Amino acid sequence: MHITQQTGLVLEGGGMRGVFTSGVLDAFMKHEVYFPYVVAVSAGACNGLSYMSRQPRRARWSNIDMLQKYGYISLRSLIQNGSIFDPKILYERFPKEFIPFDAAAYERNPATFEVVTTNCLTGRAMYFSERHDMDRLTQIVKASSSLPFVAQITEVDGIPMLDGGIVDSIPIVRSIDTGHHDNVVVLTHNRGYRSSEPDFKIPKFIYGKYPRLRVVLSHLTEEYNKQLELVERMEDWGEVIVIRPQRTLEVGRITHDVDKLERLYEEGFSLGEAFIATNLDVNV
Known about the structure:
By secondary structure, this protein is of the alpha/beta class. It has helices at 19-30, 43-52, 58-70, 75-81, 87-98, 103-108, 134-144, 172-177, 211-217, 220-236, 258-279, and strands at 7-11, 37-41, 112-119, 124-128, 154-156, 159-163, 182-186, 240-243.
């Protein structure tokens, strides 16, 4: 394939499974493989930031080294901060202190970077692109990564938002609708995976001010499985190229085991290089 202005890169979320995506993106950066349009959700958006700012291994350090050093996933954080992922470490200290985000490089990047959130008022997806206001960009990515039930609602432009994966976990349709008919999709589950978590009606005492959010949360598993089926059909028809884990997954959304995370990162890096060698005119 040839990467043109009509080529899109779609990044799924998945919590700590996103370490696979960070490996794929580091392989892309190693070989200077860049896409003109990237649309990302949740952990995919967090990892996508370092890809857009051209900072190799930055996302890996966040997902593995920083987790090991600071233990930013904890019930303590959920009780103290309202989020199981410590927001101060992830959205303040990391981008400004530990490995500062290269805002200048991000602004110079001509590619479009869209981040998916869920509007709690409408129960629909919103797609944001922010090039200059880094505080707003941080809020957008934080909102996209705010998992329901274990993270606080995050406001963007005064609108309450949660994780974009609630309503558009694999935004391939968004990429096509914006004119990108050739797509590479990075998933964080093996082919054939379907969520077995039961859907249930969300009671009114949860997100009581947001009835439309409760409706979409009540169909979360059903909609996610439909998107997985769509991507697999498109892959079988030769309409998209999918990069996904091949080994049996041993990493979940909030996995703490750094050895398992390291193995998944290395698999992502290896499969990223395999994609380049197979599909692009690049020597690996």
